[in-house]
Amino acid sequence: MSIFETTLDGYAHSNGLRNVNTYYKVLFAILTMLVSLVSQSPIVPIVIFGTVTALIIFKAKISAKFYLKFMAVPFIFALINFIFMAIFFGVGAPILKLGIFNLAVTVDGFNLGFLLLARIMGGFSCLAFLALTTPMTELFAVFEDIKIPQIVIEIAMLMYRYIFLFLDEATTMYHSQETKLGYSSFKKSYKSLGMLASNLFIKTWMKGEQVYIAMESRCYDGSIRTMGETGSIRNIGARNLILLVLFEVVLSIGTILTGSLSIF
Length: 264
Hints:
The chain has 9 helices and 2 strands. The protein is mainly alpha-helical. It folds into 2 domains: 1-135 and 236-264, no CATH class; 147-227, no CATH class. β1 and β2 form a beta hairpin. The relative contact order is 0.16. The model is unreliable at 1-5 (pLDDT under 50). This is Cobalt ABC transporter, inner membrane subunit CbiQ.
């Protein structure tokens, strides 16, 4: 399997929801993420995370292994925040005394930390849904349609392009070092990693210069045009819009009804 096929962009171009209207997916992701962020109880964000995860794995046909790896970083970040808030924030009766510097996990701190963890995972799953089911070219085209400043779009496009350029160069150099037994021992691994990091900066800088020269030779005038086929917001369809509105209304009602619920 090629490098491209195992990247985020590869899944975005070949998934079960690839041909769904881009505006529909953007509306679903943004509205659902907003509901997750404003929820005062972890119940709704957890439901959102479960629902969106099911859509990604079973409907979009994204590899569960890849998705779990993709979500590992935000989960670790959310877990660190949960632990920090559970120990250092909140008041009330302690539910766990750590025995170090009189630190303890309080009821209020635990509930606040768990709410934050649920919000992060619920919101990030919505972003993952958008990233894994929609090519970035189509998202950039949507940004143009809703009048996001052109300079912001172009910077985002170039950053996205260079992420994969960076990964491709890093992978090629790593495999080259590996075939020369550059990682056969801890000492060699340390040395090889340092060489990779220093050479990677030079190689990506040179590639960037080559890309800019290539763009100028093709009459680059300071603006990059997007050609993603996004469809139209009018082509979403009444049925799909009704389903989206009903889903968001149900989540909103759940947010109101579970606003006073907590773990402890």
